[in-house]
Amino acid sequence: MIYEVFRQERRGQPFEHAGSVEAPDADFAEAWAREQYGRRGESVALWLVPRDAIRDVEHWADEFDLKYRRVDGYSIKARLKEARERAGTAGDR
Amino acid sequence: MAAVEIPRDEQAFLEYVQAGGQVETTDWMPDEYRRLLIKFIEMHGNSELMGVLPEREWILRAPTLERKLALTAKVQDEVGHSQLIYRVVEDLGKPREQCLADLVDGKAKFHNVFHYPTKTWGDVGVIAWLVDAAAIISQKALLKCSYAPYARIMKKICWEESFHILHGRDVILAMVTGTPEQFELVQEALNRWWAPLMQFHGNPIPSDEDPMYQWRIKSQGNGEARQQFLDGYVPQIWELGLTVPDSKLRKRDDGVWEFSEPDWDELKHVVTGHGPKTEERLALRRRFLEQEQWVRDVVLAA
What we know:
By secondary structure, chain A is α+β, with helices and mostly antiparallel strands. Chain A has helices at 26-37, 77-87; strands spanning 2-8, 16-22, 45-50.
């Protein structure tokens, strides 16, 4: 069985995907993951997740291109310039 | 933002990876890309596994307890790298047992530098310092590999290799600041290793003609890697008063290093299984593979 290995570098940090180990059961998986992803103190914790247990979510509908919800939906440069000119503050910076 | 779709068409896939796109294990990929990935990554795994043998020979002969422990840790790291790497190959479709069988049958390749003998403790220092330095240049370029699972494990590998280089440099520094005989052992080892080191990054084929570069498995050409090695390490060698055994070696005003053409016939001869230690080291692997078969049987039966 294949276990995906996620490792945490320091307390409070997110667990990041590091790799995988193949093992007949969870105890062997733990032994090998400890050896391969923790023996030099590079992780404070590991998550071992059977690959089959992972629900993979990949496709995102964005039919309406809802850009107003994102930073890249706004281009304020020209308007800001105009507003500064009107206010007479364009030369202040 | 909509997720990037991996194109299910060879040409479009090629453009996707050339634009910096990355691929996961479960994504569709062209057969040719999968074949090249397996070939490249398997060779890397073999090299890590075979690469410990020249150093293993010195564990019992290390000059101090601390050196013995450090060398043992390095050997442990390199074997660990081969385990991580073979796992990636397995996910691409070639089982680990098959990789090991092809290796001991002489059907698979491993890096040229691991086919040579380690005559003295000076060789151990040169390997840990300069062979690992040359290897880390290739491996750092793999952090950008288009196959993401390989790029991810490379982070850990590069992190551990950095300790190896420092360990090697420390061994070298201890010897060049020691007796004249110790200094001479380092110079002799450098003389032995220079030719294999210059061959290490491979023939200088233009990167656009290198399939491994076209598919962005590698992110730099062979010649480029060699220049980076020379630029980083020749000044470090010279500052210790050591001589690089190449009278043509010099840095031009435009920053490019000139050197004698490496012996490409020797490289080909060695990596196709005809190096001075190839047969002996493969025989050792073969013996251990057979001897430890019972362990694999027991674990798989668990």
